[in-house]
Structures are given as C-alpha cells and as structure tokens.
C-alpha cells in the first residue's frame, strides 16, 4: 500500500506560535487581560480539539470565562453527527446577538464538523452575520492566523476544505483533572452509510507512534492517571505508517512507567482483532473496558449501514474479548430507526443486546444527514413507531445496566477520583477501571488519586460506595 504522509512541517506550526506571540503583545498591552469563551459540542475528539484551541488562545494571552457576556472572543466548536446537535448550535449562535450588541468588538468564531458540511459555510455567511470567523476541523492548526485575519476586520473570514494533515506541536490547555484525551489519529475512511464524519473530518491519518508515546509520557509526568487514546476508528491506527499498528501502540503506551490506565475509543468491530485483545490483556495498565459500537443486531441493516461485519462475527469478537479479559466492561452505540428497519430487524437488535448484556449503551434515533447515502433511502416507518422502539431499547438497556451494577454490591473496586459531585456536597465522583461511575463520601484531597471503595449501593446509572 502506498504510504502517504501528510505531516505538516514543524515550521508551519511554529509560524502559528509566532502569530500567537505577536497577538499577545497587542492584546495584553497596558496590562489588559483578554477573555475567551470556548463552547464544545459533540464527541471526545471535539473536546480534544477544544483543548488545542484553548492552548492557542492561552499563548495569545487569553484567560477563560464561562460567561459569554464578558468574553472578547467566543469560539463554538460544533458537531454535525445528528441534526439535533446542529439545531442547538444554530439556536445558541442566534442568541449571541444580544451579547455582541452589548459588547461591540466581540469576535464570534464557529468551528468544527458542522462548519465543514457542504453548504453550511454559505448558510452561515448569509444567515448568521454575527459570525466573524468560520473554519473546519482540518484548519484548526492555523487558528491563530485565521483569528488574526478576523481581528483585522477586513471582512468575515471563512476557511473550509483544508487538506487532511497531521500537525504536531500545538499547545494544549487541558481541563484540570486526572483524565486526559490523547488523539492518535484523525479522520475516517469507513463511510458508514448514515455518518457524516468521513465527509467533514477527511481521510484517516495517524500520528507517529513516537509522538503519541511522548505525549503520553508527558501527560503521566504531569499527574494524569487515565489516558484515552482517541480516533474515529482508533483500532485502524497505523495503516498509513510503516511498521505501526494499534496493538503495538497500546503496548508501547502501557509500557511507560507510572500508575495510570490506558483506554481507547472508538473501536470499529471490523478492526477489533484477537491481536488487540491480547495486547489489552497483557498489561494491567490497559483498562478492562471496550467500547464496541454494534449499531444494529440485524444483518440486513448492518449491510445497509456499510458496517463490514455481521451479527455472528460481532458476537464472536465479543466472546473472544471476554475470554481474554474476564470481567471486561463492554459498552456500545446503537442506532434505532435506520431507514427500512422493520419490527423484525429491531427485534434482532433487542435480542443482541440481551445476549451481549452491555454494561452501558448509547442509543440514538436515526438522523438523516444530507449528503450521506442513508439520507436518500426510503424511510416509511413513522416517527412515533421509531420512538416507541427507542423507548423499548432504553428500557432493556436500563434493566441490564441495573442488573450489572447490582453485581458490584459488596465488592471492593480500585477507583480513580475525578472530582466532587456538585449535586451532593461532600460526595466525590470516581471511575472504576471499567469506567463505571462511583459516588462516595470522602476528602476532596483524594481528587486526582486512586483509592479503594466498597460498593454499597447502586442505581441504573451509578454505583455508591464507601472508602476502605
Ligand atoms: N467514530 C465513532 C463515532 C461516530 S459518531 C464511531 O464510529 O463509533 C458516534 C455515534 O453516533 C455512532 O456510533 C452512531 O451510533 C451515532 N450516529 C452517527 N451518525 C448518526 C446518524 N446519522 N443518526 C443517528 N446516530 C448517528
Ligand atoms: Fe462514522 Fe462509521 Fe467512521 Fe464511525 S466508523 S466515524 S460511524 S463513518
């Protein structure tokens, strides 16, 4: 296979950092402290992208605020996976009109997957005149340059259709806490028939393993105890690199010194191999957690979704993973109401869910995305019927989840303490190795550390415990 590297030269990112330094001088003149508000929709990759946007903004001298009204720059990092997410963004952008009127000079930037959707840039230009800057995910590495242009106010700036590149050396401003996202690859080649991601995030390209391992090492040194390796199809990592593959990457990160856990998402079943399960099982540092989206339990629908596996192959992978890792926590994504899904197809999904007994599930109603093949398919099932299926699936998922949680009662789990439970003063939130939420009363000094908790109670969503 031809190997095509799309890595940007270091000088390209250095030039962006020079722009940051230049802007910093200007923006902080006379002791001023400019403020930015960064709002993030959608997936973990978007969270990771926003950490890089904040990294650049910090280099420019910005502080951060949660209040749009006092922000000099507002950045909205959008999602396009479902229509609902887009409507929310557009509604919220419209509502920014009053903050902008109250704060002339405020700059509003829109970025992320929604901006990259065909026709969207034009729609923003026409109908959302308060947006000064719009750019797609592939242009994020040159945010400083785009922001500088927008600040010069020589008109509105729009950058979409950028090349699929890998940029290293971007500054990162992570949220406080013991958990970190670590993007290992970008884009997706799968073209599942319902999904907009390959159209807006471009083709798969992997970071070099050395860059990933280096970043992991730095994260661990800075006090991170839980690293999630990210990719839209993370277990196809390395196809564009010589001598790299995902199991080897998992091994290399797990081999680093320190007390930490490694997990990853999202794995595609077609690339979930025994070699990967072996690599996971080999290291105690690899979390016993696998997020393996099945999408549907019906072979007919899986074919229509262009998923490249069938029910039997999926179940075989699950059995193989569980044989290698007893006690593995398994989670999934399911789409209900894909065009043409019959009651029988849906029954196949329900039976698969019962059979696998997922620890947790993310369920979605099919949302037609313009430009994807599935959006063109006849879809005769009434909305109410889809909703009824969705509710049945949720009921099944909740019953399984409650059952699974009940099995923790009386057990002692090593957990990583994430933070305080805002709804319940004195209560801390933690995660088990498999990613289950545990709440217990404890000293806030425990935040950011591992501790042991005996599970004393449970609900559908969470476990309760006491420190031992
Ligand atoms: N790369 C990841 C994430 C894709 S989006 C993956 O492959 O799993 C996250 C989830 O959103 C998908 O797993 C799918 O269940 C859901 N999804 C994607 N497109 C959708 C659509 N058009 N309608 C409803 N759900 C969708
Ligand atoms: Fe979308 Fe499929 Fe790629 Fe996931 S694997 S991002 S669902 S096209």
Keywords:
binds S-adenosyl-L-homocysteine, binds iron/sulfur cluster, 468 residues, six-stranded parallel sheet, alpha/beta
The count of strands amounts to 19
**Helix count, per DSSP?**
15
Helix vs. strand class: alpha/beta
Stretches with pLDDT under 50, minimum 5 residues: none
Structure write-up:
There is one protein chain. By secondary structure, the chain is an alpha/beta fold. The protein contains 15 helices and 19 strands. A six-stranded parallel beta sheet has the order 2-1-3-4-5-6, sandwiched between helices. β5, α7 and β6 (157-159) form a beta-alpha-beta unit. It starts with 9 loop residues before the first helix and ends with a strand. Residues 43, 81-82, 194-195, 197, 232-233, 266, 293, 295, 333, 335, 364, 366-367, 369 line the site of S-adenosyl-L-homocysteine.
A few lines on this structure:
The chain has 468 residues and is of the alpha/beta class.
Question: Strands, helices and their partners?
Answer:
Blueprint: H1 10-27, E1 35-40, H2 44-59, E2 63-64, E3 73-78, H3 83-95, H4 97-102, E4 107-112, H5 113-116, H6 120-127, E5 133-135, H7 143-151, E6 157-159, E7 179-183, E8 185-186, H8 197-201, E9 205-206, H9 209-221, E10 226-230, H10 246-254, E11 261-265, H11 274-282, E12 289-291, H12 299-304, H13 311-324, E13 329-336, H14 343-356, E14 360-365, H15 383-406, E15 412-420, E16 427-432, E17 437-441, E18 450-458, E19 463-467
Parallel strand pairs: 1-2, 1-3, 3-4, 4-5, 5-6, 7-10, 10-11, 12-13, 13-14, 17-19
Antiparallel strand pairs: 8-9, 15-16, 15-18, 16-17, 18-19
Helix pairs in contact: 1-7, 10-11, 11-13, 14-15
């Amino acid at each position: 296979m031809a190997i095509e590297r799309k890595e940007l030269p270091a000088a390209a990112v250095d030039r962006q950092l020079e722009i940051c330094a230049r802007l910093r001088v200007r923006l902080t003149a006379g002791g001023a402290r400019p403020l930015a508000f960064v709002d993030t929709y959608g997936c973990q990759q978007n969270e990771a992208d926003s950490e890089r946007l904040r990294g650049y903004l910090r280099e420019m001298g910005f502080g951060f605020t949660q209040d749009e009204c006092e922000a000099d720059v507002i950045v909205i990092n959008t999602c396009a996976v479902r229509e609902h997410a887009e409507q929310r963004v557009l509604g919220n952008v419209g509502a920014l009109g009053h903050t902008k009127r109250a704060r002339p000079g405020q700059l509003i930037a829109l970025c992320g997957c929604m901006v990259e959707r065909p026709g969207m840039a034009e729609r923003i230009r026409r109908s959302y005149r308060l947006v000064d800057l719009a750019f797609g995910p592939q242009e994020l590495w040159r945010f400083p340059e785009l922001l500088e242009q927008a600040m010069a106010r020589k008109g509105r700036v729009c950058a979409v259709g950028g090349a699929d590149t890998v940029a290293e050396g971007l500054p990162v401003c992570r949220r406080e806490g013991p958990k970190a996202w670590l993007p290992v690859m970008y884009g997706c080649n799968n073209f599942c028939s319902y999904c907009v991601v390959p159209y807006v995030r471009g083709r798969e390209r992997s970071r070099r393993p050395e860059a990933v391992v280096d970043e992991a090492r730095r994260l661990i040194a800075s006090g991170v105890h839980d690293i999630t390796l990210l990719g839209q199809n993370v277990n196809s990592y390395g196809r564009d690199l010589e001598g790299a593959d995902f199991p080897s990457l998992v091994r290399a990160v797990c081999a680093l010194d320190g007390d930490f856990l490694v997990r990853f998402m999202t794995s595609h079943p077609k690339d979930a191999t025994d070699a990967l399960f072996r690599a996971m099982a080999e290291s105690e540092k690899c979390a016993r957690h696998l997020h393996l989206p099945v999408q549907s339990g019906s072979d007919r629908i899986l074919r229509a979704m262009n998923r490249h596996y069938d029910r039997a192959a999926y179940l075989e992978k699950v059995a193989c993973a569980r044989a290698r890792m007893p006690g593995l926590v398994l989670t999934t994504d399911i789409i209900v109401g894909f065009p043409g899904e019959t009651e029988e197809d849906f029954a196949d999904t329900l039976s698969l869910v019962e059979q696998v007994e997922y620890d947790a599930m993310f369920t979605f109603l099919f949302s037609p995305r313009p430009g994807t093949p599935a959006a063109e398919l006849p879809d005769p099932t009434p909305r109410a019927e889809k909703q009824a299926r969705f509710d049945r699936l949720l009921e099944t998922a909740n019953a399984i989840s409650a059952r699974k949680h009940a099995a923790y009662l009386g057990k002692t789990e090593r957990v990583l303490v994430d933070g305080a439970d805002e709804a319940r003063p004195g209560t801390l939130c933690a995660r088990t190795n498999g990613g289950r939420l545990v709440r217990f009363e404890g000293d806030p000094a425990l935040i950011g550390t591992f501790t042991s908790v005996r599970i004393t109670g449970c609900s559908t969503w969470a476990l309760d415990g006491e420190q031992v």
